[in-house]
Specification:
Length: about 425
């Protein structure tokens, strides 16, 4: 059944199921064989639509290359690539409602639970054969696109978070790269120079602190509702806030006039930040004089933790070209296509074998990011995470700035979030 959250008032067009990639029957004599070969050569080309959001020119060129390779190997399938520049999910949902959705499209793990619930995505398990090797995907990444034992998408790539550190600042301060969160807090004190340089650049938002919030055994989301007022969650996040308000060895980008922690780090305003794979080419290209390294995120209470952000290819359940759509999806997320797509390092391969083949698991900068994939918390938790996320951020930043206690902020945020969730049910 379709989710009334975003399709109320709309009718659903009849889904026409079928394959356009049909074979030709053959006879036993030479004439029949000739006819079969002639028919195959003249088989009508199938066009399928692939929709996604925009990317950098370098990534766009990579995708063009992968799609060209696919079409060379599948001459009877033509891929029409559509770039949706603004309001991507709103446009996709509107098209799906109107029966004009693309055959294949990008889906962020953050949005996946809600869209899976509506029934607009095609379950993919019946299309998969042994050669596709599902076990090769990093487990947390693929689980983000599964529900009730069915798989609705295969991740095209991902990034975890890692600790980025300024080598020169560490050498001058005479400190080692922290391996625990307590060490990070202490090291930050030695690295901080008033308000000119902070030991640690922070992100005061749930997307970057979710794994920290759950490090004491609490849960941010329970039964698809906000639960971050739980004392265990508050207690886990308190040291993060205290480092800013009490130690004064941490700051957020806006405190130093930066737009994000990658820029803050590149400008030399923070000796450490926790960032993703996307920060590597940014820092190298924008701040080429910065010598930096990466390490796995410091442990909390003896446990490893990080976040993972991933996007999958999914199939429109109403597509009339499902077999062709699967051919495309299986190539893009297969070992060959994924190797080309991730060859420049803009995105990490969600397949373990591809990461190993490209050497990312042992890479000086990307190795720490790859190492975090098996234990990462994927940014995806139930259909109401968008509401939970927004309300958490609205109040958490006030606690981060010292306008109210963290306990008060998270209690208010939880109450508001759950009222909104109940109102839409």
């Amino acid at each position: 059944m379709f989710n009334k959250k975003w399709i109320a008032g709309f009718g659903i067009t009849t889904m026409l199921l079928g394959s356009v990639l049909t074979g030709c029957s053959g006879g036993g004599d030479d004439t029949a064989k000739e006819d079969k070969n002639k028919d195959a050569a003249n088989e009508e080309q199938v066009e399928i639509t692939l929709a996604g959001w925009g990317s950098s020119p370098e990534e766009a060129d990579l995708l063009k290359q992968v799609l060209a390779d696919f079409e060379d190997k599948h001459p009877n399938i033509k891929v029409k690539h559509e770039v949706i520049a603004d309001q991507y999910m709103d446009v996709i949902k509107t098209r799906l409602i109107g029966g004009e959705g693309p055959d294949v499209f990008y889906l962020d793990a953050f949005e996946a639970p809600g869209l899976i619930e509506t029934g607009v995505l095609e379950p993919l398990d019946e299309y998969v054969n042994e050669d596709f090797d599902v076990e090769d995907f990093e487990k947390p990444l693929i689980e983000a696109f599964q529900k009730d034992g069915a798989t609705y998408g295969f991740p095209k790539g991902y990034s975890t978070l890692a600790l980025f550190y300024n080598k020169k600042m560490f050498e001058e301060a005479g400190v080692e790269v922290p391996k625990t969160w307590d060490e990070l807090r202490e090291v930050s004190k030695a690295l901080t120079k008033g308000t000119d340089v902070y030991g640690f650049g922070q992100n005061a938002e749930l997307a970057r602190t979710y794994f920290i919030a759950e490090s004491n055994g609490g849960e941010v989301v329970v039964d698809n509702k906000a639960n971050f007022a739980d004392p265990k969650v508050v207690g886990a996040l308190q040291p993060y806030v205290d480092q800013h308000l009490v130690d004064k060895t941490a700051a957020q980008p806006s405190d130093v006039g930066a737009g994000w922690t990658g820029e803050m780090f590149g400008q030399g305003k923070a000796a450490m930040v926790i960032e993703g794979n996307w920060a590597i080419p940014y820092i190298q290209n924008t701040f080429p004089d910065i010598e930096f390294g990466t390490a796995e995120v410091p442990t909390i209470n003896g446990k490893q933790g990080t976040m993972a952000f991933t996007v999958s290819y999914v199939m429109n359940a109403a597509s009339e070209k499902k077999e062709a759509a699967w051919e495309l999806m299986s190539y893009l997320t297969g070992k060959e296509g994924m190797e080309t797509w991730t060859s420049k390092g803009f995105e990490l391969p969600s397949r373990k074998s591809v990461a190993e083949k490209l050497g990312y698991d042992k890479d000086e900068l990307r190795g720490a990011l790859v190492a975090g994939a098996p234990y990462a918390t994927v940014w995806s938790e139930g259909t109401n995470l968008p509401i939970i996320f927004t309300n958490f951020n609205n109040q958490f930043v006030s606690a981060y700035l010292g306008d109210q206690t963290l306990e008060e902020a998270l209690k208010a945020a939880q109450e508001t979030a759950n009222k909104e969730i109940e109102a839409q049910q």
